[in-house]
Amino acid sequence: MSPTNPARSATARVIPAETTATGSLERPVPSGANAPGFGSDVVAETLRALDIPYIALNPGASYRGLHDSIVNFLGNEGPQMLLCLHEEAAVAIAHGYAKVTGRSMAAAVHSNVGLFHATMAIFNAWCDRMPVVVLGATGPVDAIKRRPWIDWIHTARDQGAIVRNYTKWDDQPASPGAAREALLRGYWLANTAPRAPVYINLDAEVQEAKLAEPLPPIDIARFIPPIATAAPSHLIATAAEMLKGAKRPLIYAGRVSRSLEAWNARVALAEALDARVVSDLKVGAAFPTEHPLYAGATRGVAPDSFEADVVLSLDWVDLGGALKGGAAAFKIIQVSLDQQIHNGWSMDYQALPPVDLFLAADPDAVVPALLEALKADPSPRYAPIYRPVEAKQFAADELTNEHLAHALRQAVGERMVCLAHLPLSWDAGWWPFRHPLDQVGSDGGGGVGGGPGISVGVALALKGSGRLPIGICGDGDFMMGVTALWTAVHYRLPLLIVVANNRSFFNDELHQERVARIRNRPVENRWIGQRISDPDIDMATIARGQGALGFGPLTTMQELKPAFEEAIAAVEEGHVAVVDVRVKPGYTAAMTAAMTRKTE
Ligand SMILES: Cc1ncc(C[n+]2csc(CCOP(=O)(O)OP(=O)(O)O)c2C)c(N)n1
Ligand SMILES: [Mg+2]
Question: Structure pTM?
Fold first, then answer.
C-alpha cells in the first residue's frame, strides 16, 4: 500500500492489503488523488465504506470511470479487483464467496452486453438465495453526451429489466449522492434474509462528471441496520409443544447458514427431541451425517417413508414437493422467510406446502429459541469422530463417480475440506459432513457452468483458512465455466478441481432414454447429440493452458489416489490443480431408475 495513495475519506474504513487474500498483487503506482473528485470516486469510496473486499469484473468503457476510481483513487484495495475472463465467472465467484462467508462481495459487468453474459450466474445466485452486489453501467443517459454508435448500442432504456425478475432490487441512480444511497440500500437488501443479488446500474455520465461539491460524511452503519428475524415467543411455545408431543418428529434441515454455532444448536435440538434429520445436497451441509439421528439426504429417500407425526422444516427448498402424497398424515411446522422474495416471474418458490404452524423467521434464530422453550441443553452431546477411510474393494474396473469419491476421500485423509461443488450424479452417502463448511451446496438455479466459478469463489473465501477447497465438476459444467480457473491461478487462490469426466452431457442422455422408452423407440440412440467425445477433451491440457496444474486423464483405480495426493500437495503449496478422471457414463442405479421411469 502506498503511503500517499489513496485518499481515505472520513467515512471509509481502511482495509490493509495484508488482510485480503490477494492484497500484494496488482499494486498501482500512486496517483496522488486524495479526495473524491468525480462521481465514480464516490461509488468507490462507498464500496470501501461497506467493507466490500473484492470486486470481480470483466472491464468495459461504460464503467471506465469506476475502474479508474478503484485503481487510482482507492489504490486497488478494499475492494480489490479480480479480473475475470467472462461475466458469468465474475458473478459465480461472488456467489461462491457468499456461500462461505454469508455476505456479499461485488461484481461489475459492462453495459447491457456484460449483463447479458452475467444473467445465468445471477439467476443461480438468486435461486440459491445468495447475496451479490452486481454493479453495471450504461452509456450516458443524456443522449447529447453519447459517443457515436457504441454508446448508443450500449445504452438501454431500462437495463435493469434484463435481471429485474431474478434480483431482489435494482436501481439506476442519477447523481453521486444517489449512487451512494443506492449502494447502501442495495448492500443492505442483498445481505438481509431472504438474501439475493441486487443490481445497480451506473450512468457513465454520472461516474465521469466532476463532483460539484464534496458530499457530506455519512455514518454508514446507520444505513445498513442488521435485521435478525426471530419468531414471536407464543409461536415458539406452540411449536415447542407440538414437537414435545410428537412420537416421531422429523426435521428437514434446509437453507441454513454456515455458522458452527447454529449447526450445534440444530444437533442439540434433534437430540432433545430425539428427532431424525434429513438434509439436502442442494443447500449445503446442515447436520452431521454420521450422527445416529441423521436419516439421509432426500434424493432417493421418500419423505413419507419416515412415518413422522410432526415435521419441522427449517426453510426446506420445495417443502410442498417433498410432502406430495404424504402430508395428511402429519403436522407441519414451516420456518421460512422465503415468501418475502417470491415474484410472479420465477417459479423457484416451488409448490405451495400445506402448513399447520408457520414461523416467518430465520431458522438460525428459531432453533435456539426452541431449545430454550424446551428447556433443553443447548450443547450437542454428539461430537464428530474423524477416522481414516477404510479401503473399499470395487467389483467393476471401469471408473464411476463412486470410485472417484472413495479415492479422493482416501487422499484427503484427515484434512478439513470444503466440497465447493458436486456433480448432479453425486450420492450423499459417499462423503460424510461434520462441519457446516464441509459442503456449501449446489449452483442453486440448475445453470450448468456455475461449478468452476463458484469453486473459485469458495477458494477465495477460504484462502488462508486451512480448509482445502475441492470443486467436483461434470465435464459439461467444467467446460462451460472453465475460464474461471484463470482468475484463481492469477490471484493465487489454491483450489483443487476434479472433473468427473464421463465425456457426455450425461444427465440428458437419461432424459432421451426416458423419452425413447415412453415412445417405444430405440434407447441405444440416447447418446446422439449428447456425447462430448471424438475428440475427447483433454482437461489437464486445458488446465495447463490457464496456468493451473493438470493431472490425467486417469482411467484406473490404482492411478486415482496417488494423483489426488500429488494434486492436493500442489494445492497446499498454493497452486490450482485440475484432475481429469474418466468415469463411465452412468449414474447410481437409484438415480438412473428414478430418471428413466416410463411414468410421470
Ligand atoms: C446452462 C444449461 N444448459 C443446459 C442445461 C441442461 N443440462 C442439465 S444437466 C446437463 C448435463 C451436464 O453435463 P455434465 O456437467 O457433464 O454432467 P453429467 O450429467 O454428465 O454428469 C445439461 C446439459 C442446464 N441445466 N443448464
Ligand atoms: Mg458429463
Answer: 0.95
